[in-house]
Amino acid sequence: MDPLIEHHLGVTRRTLLQSSAYGLGGAAVSWMLNRDGLAIGSAPVVRAGAVGSSTQSLPELPHFAPKAKRIIYLFQNGGPSHVELFDYKPKLRELHGQVMPEEYLKGRRFSSMSANLTGRLVLGHVEPFQQYGKSGAWMSDLMPFTAQIADELCFVKGMQTDAVNHAPAISFLLSGGQLPGRPTMGSWLSYGLGSANEDLPSYVVMTSVSKGTSCGQIFYDFYWGSGFLPSRYQGVKFRGSNEPVLYLQNPDGMTRDVRRGMLDDIQAANQLKLESAGDPEIATRIAQYEMAYRMQASVPELTDLSNEPKRVLERYGPQVTEPGTFAHNCLMARRMIERGVQFVQLMHAGWDQHNSLTTELYTQCKDTDQPSAALVADLKERGLLEDTLVIWGGEFGRTPFIQGDIQNRKRWGRDHHPYAFTVWMAGGGVKPGISYGESDELAVNAVKDAVHVHDLQATILHLMGIDHEKLTYRFQGRQFRLTDVHGKVVKGILA
């Protein structure tokens, strides 16, 4: 039951009248104690499991030994084109410019931008593909750095989703529901597994977008929201600037000791209110004040790259020292998980190439290819890849047929495609150097070992030691979970 409702059910009429009568008197006593210096002391005692320097895991978790201890999700907003990057189909080149055979599209729903197109024309890959590594993975020439780590990657090429537009599809992948309001994956993990660190949040989000792009997606807060879970489990967004978290600096003239004393007094008052009202959001407020105080010391150290070797910085590419870029965020993600952050969600917008495959797609790949590969290589070099799960992918793929005029190469584009797309994973208990699942010869439909979004979610939780059917939260009269009432673990990719 919701703790606030449970508390209210236990309040008698007499208790309600008493607490109402004591309100003004309590405020007066608090003011007098503070005036006389009697209220100054140590930090308040809070109820076990409510808040604290680090949240506690649910007593039954993990359900079994985890293979991954932390996750870095390299989320590519906008739908990167699987047929341009990872899903090589010679038949597309063969049929380039011809009408897409109707049997591939029959009964399929597409976005309104191409739903009424007649005579959809096949569009071949814009750049050549090559095979790489001992695994022989096919990759486009657009991804030369990722190609170098081919044998570390597990490609899932039969991904499927239910949504055909961006916000619902992103929400569906990250929270299990197309409508906002459900907890995101990082929130579920924070709720279930707690936090291993005291000085940084367990769930951090960073966003970026390629410069000059015309197809950037909006970063809605519900992409890292906690939904109906207490809000202390929501992701903490770090800004893309030299000051990633606002208001961490004390005002001029205020020492850290003075700040500590002020927070102790505020938290004592909040603790009294928590005990009388039972509202879990008050516990969240207490935890946020404490975390902000500790982050005053931890964030400056986290963001100081002066101790990073030159060769490491060069590995991530020329934008690595520029806050707000994908390269910088990738390096920050590695530094965060080294310091105990459990779930880092990097979101890079601009993959929505409706009419810019031959222009902006190249920019997207240039900005993300090298840092993504560098992150995996860096983690492996430091012995962190084995128990860190790295995921790369977007909310859906792109149509194998063209959106636009096939005679005008500068304006080639592809629409949203939910029926077969590709993500890759590395480390954290997945098999390296494999491709799991297949799409048909035109990359339209998943025809072998299809993986639904709920299956991917179930597998991610499994790697973290969680049975996705057992991690639930009661809300509005029913038990909710990340995978809704679906999902199965994809055992074929487990190491």
Brief rundown of the structure:
With 495 residues, the protein is an alpha/beta fold. It has helices at residues 3-9, 13-36, 82-85, 90-94, 102-105, 144-148, 166-175, 185-193, 256-277, 280-303, 310-316, 326-338, 360-381, 453-463, and strands spanning 70-76, 129-132, 137-140, 153-160, 203-209, 236-238, 343-349, 388-393, 397-398, 416-417, 421-426, 434-436, 438-439, 446-448, 451-452, 473-475, 478-480.
Would you kindly provide a written description of the structure presented here, covering whatever features stand out?
The protein is α/β, with parallel strands linked by helices. It has a single domain, classed as Alkaline Phosphatase, subunit A (3-Layer(aba) Sandwich). It is 34% helix and 15% strand. The strands form 5 sheets. Strands 1, 4, 5, 6, 7, 8, 11, 12 and 15 form a 9-stranded mixed β-sheet that branches. A two-stranded antiparallel ribbon has the order 2-3. Helix 9 runs antiparallel to helix 10 and helix 12 packs parallel to helix 13. The two termini are 38 Å apart. About 7% of the residues have low confidence.
